[in-house]
Write a structure and sequence with these properties.
single chain; alpha/beta
């Protein structure tokens, strides 16, 4: 039986969420910027360490806050499925301090609201637009230490424009989500391995 994992990709306007997703799925990058106004779900299937997974990658438009309740989630069409996601990718622009403050707020709200409802879920913080690193608002080391040591989240930087670390970030997140699921099921099995991009098919 193929397991389904839902991934919510969240970030402030213009950070490159859609570009990251489309580069991963279609090996495609567009220079022009179009605002994400409504939630859109992509449904690829991937192979991780010889196991197949159906993914539901949700491109979430900018939201004022993480839905605090199921009722709030269903009242806002942009938030459908966000509370119960298997994992989260929080994207910020390494050149924009405000975009980092946004995911800082969202991460705290995820931690606060998931603890009493759907349980914890892996969170990967992604610094996008690495190709513009000379314009970054602070050092990579400073952000990485904060995210890994204080927030207890994964951290990676990428460039959708040059397809740098795009596959790696999804591989890392999926490995964490699978390992987390196994841990919740009290299994001692640990899955390790790479996501084989050339086996990834869009459905």
């Amino acid at each position: 039986m193929v397991e389904t994992l839902s991934i919510a990709v969240i970030g402030a306007p213009g950070v490159g969420k859609t570009s990251i997703i489309r580069q991963f799925l279609y090996n495609d990058f567009t220079e022009g910027y179009t605002t994400t106004n409504s939630r859109y779900a992509y449904r690829p299937s991937v192979i991780l360490n010889g196991n197949m997974f159906d993914l539901k990658i949700m491109d979430v438009p900018p939201i004022l806050s993480f839905p605090a309740s199921t009722c709030q989630e269903w009242l806002d069409l942009r938030c459908h499925g966000v509370r119960t996601a298997s994992a989260y990718i929080l994207v910020y622009d390494i050149c924009c301090m405000e975009s980092f403050e946004y995911i800082k707020m969202i991460r705290q709200q995820i931690v606060d609201n998931r603890a009493s409802s759907s349980g914890e879920a892996p969170i990967l913080v992604v610094g996008s637009k690495r190709d513009l690193q000379r314009q970054r608002f602070t050092s990579r080391r400073a952000v990485s230490l904060l995210v890994k040591k204080t927030w207890k989240c994964g951290y990676i930087e990428c460039s959708a424009k040059y397809n740098w670390h795009i596959t790696l970030l999804f591989k890392e997140l999926l490995a964490s989500a699978v390992a987390h699921g196994l841990k919740q099921n009290h299994s001692s099995i640990r899955l390790q391995g790479a996501l084989h991009r050339n086996r990834c098919s869009i459905m």
